[in-house]
Design goal:
The complex is a heterodimer of chains A (796) and B (339).
Chain A: E1 2-4, H1 5-9, H2 18-26, E2 31-37, E3 43-55, E4 63-68, E5 75-79, E6 89-98, E7 104-105, E8 108-110, E9 113-115, E10 117-119, H3 153-156, E11 162-167, H4 178-189, E12 212-215, E13 223-230, H5 239-247, H6 255-267, E14 271-275, E15 283-288, E16 294-296, E17 302-304, E18 310-313, E19 318-321, E20 325-326, E21 339-345, H7 348-358, H8 363-370, H9 376-390, E22 395-396, E23 401-404, E24 411-415, H10 417-422, H11 430-439, E25 444-446, E26 451-455, H12 465-476, H13 497-511, E27 515-516, E28 522-523, E29 555-556, H14 561-573, E30 579-589, E31 600-610, H15 616-629, E32 634-638, E33 644-654, E34 657-665, H16 667-672, E35 679-685, H17 686-689, E36 708-717, H18 722-733, E37 737-746, E38 755-764, H19 773-789, E39 792-794
Parallel strand pairs in A: 12-15, 27-30
Antiparallel strand pairs in A: 1-11, 2-11, 3-4, 3-6, 4-5, 6-7, 6-10, 8-9, 13-21, 13-22, 13-23, 14-21, 15-18, 16-17, 18-19, 19-20, 24-26, 25-26, 28-29, 30-31, 31-35, 32-33, 33-34, 34-35, 36-38, 36-39, 37-38
Chain B: H1 2-18, H2 22-33, H3 38-44, H4 53-90, H5 109-123, E1 127-128, E2 134-136, H6 137-140, E3 165-167, H7 172-181, E4 186-195, E5 207-217, H8 222-237, E6 243-250, E7 253-262, E8 279-288, H9 290-295, E9 304-311, H10 312-320, H11 327-330, H12 333-336
Parallel strand pairs in B: 1-4
Antiparallel strand pairs in B: 2-3, 4-5, 5-9, 6-7, 7-8, 8-9
């Protein structure tokens, strides 16, 4: 909330510089967003009187002026403007001056004639007609003859104020106004606060003869108060009021409307002014809108209403959208003669819902949404009447109509100094506690044992001792809090097993040269289509965000592949030559639709690799290392994911559980991501992998006897999986097998059509002797037998 | 013969001394000590000597042989050392030539900062727990003392998935789940992903990360909160870092504070990083609101606690001086390589 320092000073003594006051307010819980010193960017510009004007000899439009700037000597300034005459008082930017538009003026020569500054237009001073009459005129701004020559322009324009923007926290709606902030300042600075007077005289009569007020829904309108003012004298409001309204970012309209806005800014209580003569049936009815009702508000917009919305109606129709905006028809205009003045409390969520539904947020609705004090309604009304009287804006009719169902009593909180301080851990003298609470208006008394506080309705936020503790500390000062070590044994905290397992995966992946990626959990609803999944694939059942930022971020992902493809695409299109990436995140899988309970959040990992040295098998190598962490017994089977190359993809079974799919991305899919090179991706279900219990590692003695290497080259049908042959060797060699390695697969010349040549190196070793030739021959025969069973014959 | 022996010996010594490489030494050895060598030849002439002279001369020859052998061995060692030295010298490389690196990957900067934080809080006895990202209104708002019509809901623009389901706006939701399942004393941190409807720009992201801390026990005070945060700040920003509490408002804590640390860039004197104030705001904290404790079945008269929420993304961008938060989610390898 933006507040003028000058206005604050009318209610509270401020005995320190503005900056210091702001710093103290910050430490009391009122963040200051900005301090703007008016006229800060207007320097060395004075009101100067034109003493003499001569034409410039070398120019058809320049004029040479002698200026009286209140000094002993005249100053010569050359200007191109024509709207000036001797005797005019004008703004003169002197040598080394600054203008609000950022211009720096220095002395110089214009066509050979020295000019020691510049005469300014209203535009150059960033002034509008509202700031100074005549400011919009083309040419030099002619000032009213109110100030002697030499007066600083900041004084001429009355720019001596600070505009301070306080950020008011949601728990302090009472400080959404100048008086609320002024009260806090008085507590913080320990100076006196005085509320503005509310004196006025009435002209007799009785409001009841003019109007009747009926509240049909007290839940949505707990208090409604009305007054009547006759013989309106509509005109502009005084300068001081306009300045205060402008400082807070509002626009002056006329004295009556300005008074309601001024009182709202001052007291935090919104008000509304009705043109009494437009109220049908001389009635005010506070009710829910009827079906098919509508209203045109003063901004000229017509709104269709529904029955949840509260309106202030006359005998016929809605006349005001309660708490949000008045109706066009009953707006105060220049010729309005009688005013019905409303001051009320409306329920905050109803105002919020109506405002949201109609897309409206006003200074008034914002305050009702955050909450106004039911008792403050009366004070605000009195203050407004006081101003109407003071400004002689009309004649106040006697009588008030105040509809409510009882006003709340002060709430009583009983506690002890110890209970208050228990949460803080700082010793504050009881007297200090009491004086702080009392300075904040919390009516604290102490009976030697207990503190009793009377909490007024305006401090609705204070519920118990924790709140009192905060009130005491923010005034006493948080710098009194000294860090302490907590009591109790400190043992190192534990991580969840899943986090420990992820840490291991990440360490391994780092070692394998892979970079961890982080992508958003919500993706475009159309992203899933890029994978060419079957129509009934369950990954299409994505949880949608009801109010997404845009289509791009509209569904929770059921897979991590599309995000990984985007990562690969980014890197490829930025000409990175290669890369290995992975992400550990979650898939969101709904238990049912429509969504009624939280979806499953399944920990999942994606991997993506590309580059000239990468292929299906380098990715397989990465997968194997991960499976190794979990000690999983791994098998690979052909899979059929639509987004992968049909001949280059596999499903990974770890201890017979389906844990991963990986392979080369289908070129048609890659193309959708602007990827024109081969890329490989994997998706691993960590939730399944976590369930695999790793066997305990036990040490195996290092071999004492030498190993023997034998090569086996064989021919087999081209479609026999190499894995089958490897299995044959493993089972043939049985427990003497140390290692088996594929070293060649070949088709082509010298190999019969439909066949391939496959060659393995096999290492055999016994733990308790050197293998004899006979033993080796025996094992080799067994291996060959198994290989033959698997469909391979040894090449001679 | 004796003179002949002396002459041979002298010649041998001379030859050894002037030998310049191991090959020359070997030639000398063959020339004097080999089967057909000169000293060997002298021994063969012994037959012509008288039986009295033989042992004397024999001894002399053997002595000469031995001393030549020793000299050869010495010279050989000397030359071999010189040769090794020369070889090493010849093998001198240009150490400024590029390294042959094994490609090592990196943990994402957000997680590398998180890992540091986890380590710090684990050492202070905090367990690391998790919570769901899709939350119910109850856990994200209601039990955190933000009832349906509370204006504080406006502080956080929430993504909704269903009438009662939303993407958590704060890891504080995990507070409630922790207090429901654990009995005091409680000391946990809950790192995780949170969501708010902020348009993407250089400093805002609808997806970001928080670390929620929660302590509940008997007699926990704001001084304890400051103690923990001081230790945290000292480890993250250096041991001279100061911690300042500023009063603030969060519905789920009372009293609530914003926590500033002295700017590590300028040491608190004021610079561009801290916008001249000497302080940097790093987190929000406070004493757990009695209503929150009550909601979780913990008696606020018996127990008290504190909670804090640290923005991981801000911490990461300030630590590495990353000017645009979007870089964290782009995953360009040239960016990821740097951490």
């Amino acid at each position: 909330m933006k507040i003028s320092l000058n206005q604050l000073k009318t209610y509270v003594e401020i005995n320190v510089p503005a900056e210091e006051m702001c710093e103290k307010m910050v430490m009391a819980g009122f963040e200051v967003e900005s301090i703007e010193k008016q006229g800060e960017n207007l320097k060395n510009v004075v009101a100067a009187k034109i003493v003499d004007i001569k034409p410039h000899e070398d120019s058809d439009h320049l004029q040479i002026c002698q200026m009286d700037i209140g000094a002993d000597e005249l100053v010569q300034i050359v200007t191109g403007a024509q709207n000036i005459a001797v005797g005019d008082l004008v703004p003169a930017a002197l040598n080394d001056s600054y203008l609000p538009n950022g211009m720096h003026i220095v002395a110089g020569k214009l066509r050979g004639v020295p000019s020691n500054g510049m005469l300014c237009s209203g535009e150059e001073l960033c002034l509008t007609e509202a700031d100074y009459e005549g400011a919009s005129v083309h040419g030099i701004l002619i000032l009213r003859d109110e100030f002697p020559a030499g007066t600083d322009m900041r004084d001429v324009l009355g720019l001596d104020d600070y505009i301070i923007d306080f950020k008011i926290t949601a728990n302090r709606p009472d400080c959404n106004c100048v008086l609320g902030v002024a009260k806090e300042i008085s507590v913080v600075l320990g100076t006196e606060f005085k509320a503005p007077a509310t004196e006025y005289k009435t002209i007799g009569g009785d409001i009841k003869d003019f109007i009747d007020i009926e509240v049909k829904n007290y839940e949505l309108c707990p208090r409604y108060m009305g007054r009547l003012v006759k013989n309106l004298r509509i005109g502009p409001s005084p300068d001081w009021m306009q300045k205060a309204i402008t400082a807070s970012g509002m626009r002056p309209i006329n004295n009556i409307v300005d008074i309601t806005n001024f009182v709202m800014l001052e007291t935090g209580q919104p008000m509304h002014a009705f043109n009494y003569d437009e109220l049908e049936g001389k009635k005010i009815i506070v009710r829910n809108a009827a079906e098919n009702e509508s209203i045109t508000t003063i901004d000229g917009t017509e709104h269709a209403l529904n029955t949840d919305m509260l309106v202030i109606a006359d005998g016929e129709k809605p006349s005001c959208l309660a708490g949000i905006m008045g109706g066009k028809e009953s707006e105060i205009e220049d010729d309005t003669t009688t005013l019905f003045l409303e001051c009320a409390k409306f329920k905050r969520d109803n105002i919020r819902h109506t405002g949201r539904a109609l897309g409206m947020r006003t200074e008034s609705s914002g305050r009702f949404e955050r909450g106004v004090d039911i008792k403050n309604v009366e004070y605000a009304m009195e203050r407004a009447l006081g101003l109407i009287y003071e400004l002689d804006a009309g004649d106040i009719v006697d009588g008030v109509i105040d509809r409510n169902q009882g006003l709340p009593e002060d709430r009583i909180i009983v506690t002890t100094p110890a209970k208050i301080l228990e949460l803080i851990g700082v010793d504050v003298p009881t007297n200090t506690i009491l004086s702080i609470l009392n300075s904040l208006g919390l009516g604290a008394t102490f009976d030697g044992k207990e503190i009793t506080c009377r909490i007024p309705s305006i401090r609705d936020d204070i519920e118990g001792r924790a709140d009192l503790a905060e009130e005491v500390m923010r005034i006493y000062g948080y710098d009194h809090i000294v860090g302490t070590a907590m009591r109790g044994d400190v043992i190192r905290g534990k991580k969840l097993p899943e986090r420990i397992k992820n840490d291991k995966i990440k360490r391994t992946l780092s070692g394998l040269g892979a970079f961890e990626a982080t992508t958003y959990s919500f993706i475009s609803s159309k992203a899933i289509d890029t994978l060419n999944l079957d129509e009934n694939d369950e990954r299409r059942n994505q949880v949608s965000i009801i109010n997404p930022l845009g289509e791009e971020y509209s569904v929770m992902r059921t897979q991590l592949i599309t995000s990984m493809l985007t990562v690969l695409s980014t890197n490829i299109n930025r000409k990175n030559e290669d890369g290995r990436f992975y992400e550990i995140s979650k898939r969101f899988v709904a238990k049912s639709f429509p969504l009624t309970e939280q979806p499953d959040e399944l920990p999942t990992m994606s991997i993506g690799i590309f580059g000239k040295d990468e292929d299906f098998f380098t990715l397989k190598g990465i997968i194997e290392e991960i499976m190794h962490i979990f000690g999983a017994h791994t098998r690979y089977e052909r899979s059929n994911e639509t987004y992968l190359h049909p001949g280059r993809q596999a499903r990974v079974l770890a201890n017979n559980k389906d844990v991963a799919v990986f392979g080369e991305v289908h070129p048609a899919v890659a193309q959708k991501y602007d990827i024109d090179t081969r890329v490989y991706v994997a998706e691993i279900k960590l939730d399944v992998l976590y369930t695999i219990e790793k066997r305990k590692t036990t040490y195996k003695p290092l071999p004492k006897f030498p190993a023997v290497e034998r090569d086996f080259a064989m021919l087999c049908d081209i479609d026999v999986p190499v894995g089958n042959l490897e299995q044959a060797i493993i089972s043939g060699a049985s427990r003497l097998l140390e290692k088996v390695e594929l070293f060649d697969v070949y088709t082509g010349s010298q190999i019969p059509e439909g066949k391939k040549s496959v060659a393995f190196s096999v290492w055999l070793r016994s733990a308790d002797s050197t293998l004899s030739d006979t033993q080796i021959d025996e094992i080799s025969e067994k291996i060959v037998a198994k290989l033959e069973k698997a469909g391979a014959t040894l090449r001679k | 013969m004796k003179q002949q022996l002396e002459a041979i010996k002298l010649a041998a010594v001379e030859a050894i001394n002037t030998a310049s490489d191991e090959k020359a030494i070997e030639e000398i050895r063959v020339k004097y000590l080999g089967k057909k060598g000169e000293l060997t030849a002298i021994l063969k002439q012994m037959g012509s000597l008288s039986p009295e002279e033989r042992p004397v001369m024999g001894q002399l020859v053997n002595e000469a042989k031995q001393s030549v052998e020793e000299l050869i061995a010495e010279k050989k060692a000397e030359l071999s050392a010189a040769a090794t030295l020369q070889k090493l010298k010849d093998e001198t490389i240009d150490i400024t030539m590029p390294a042959k690196t094994a490609k090592v990957g990196k943990i994402h900067p957000l997680n590398s900062v998180l890992d540091d934080m986890i380590d710090i809080f684990q050492s202070m006895g905090f367990d690391v727990v998790d919570g769901p990202e899709v939350e119910t209104d109850y856990y994200n708002f209601e039990c955190l003392n933000v009832p349906a019509d509370h204006p504080a809901r406006d502080m956080q623009d929430t993504f909704y998935l269903g009438e009662n389901l939303l993407l958590r706006t704060q890891t504080s939701a995990a507070q409630i789940r922790t207090m429901e399942t654990r009995k005091p004393p409680i000391r946990v941190i809950c790192p995780g992903r949170v969501y708010r409807a902020d348009e993407v720009d250089a400093t805002h992201s609808p997806v970001f990360h928080q670390i929620e801390g929660l302590v509940v026990d008997k007699g926990i005070t704001m001084c304890d909160l400051k103690g923990v945060l001081e230790q945290f700040a000292h480890e993250i920003y250096g041991k001279d870092t100061k911690v300042k509490f500023r009063p603030s408002f969060f519905p789920f804590t009372e009293p609530s504070v914003e926590v500033d640390v002295s700017c590590s860039e300028c040491g608190g004197k004021g610079c561009r990083v801290c916008k001249g104030s000497g302080w940097i705001e790093i987190l929000g904290a406070g004493m757990v609101h009695p209503s929150v404790l009550k909601c979780c079945g913990i008696d606020p008269e018996e127990y008290s606690g504190f909670a804090f929420g640290i923005g991981l993304d801000r911490l990461t961008t300030t630590r590495y001086k990353i000017s645009d938060i979007r870089l964290l989610f782009e995953n360009d390898k040239r960016f990821l390589e740097q951490f």
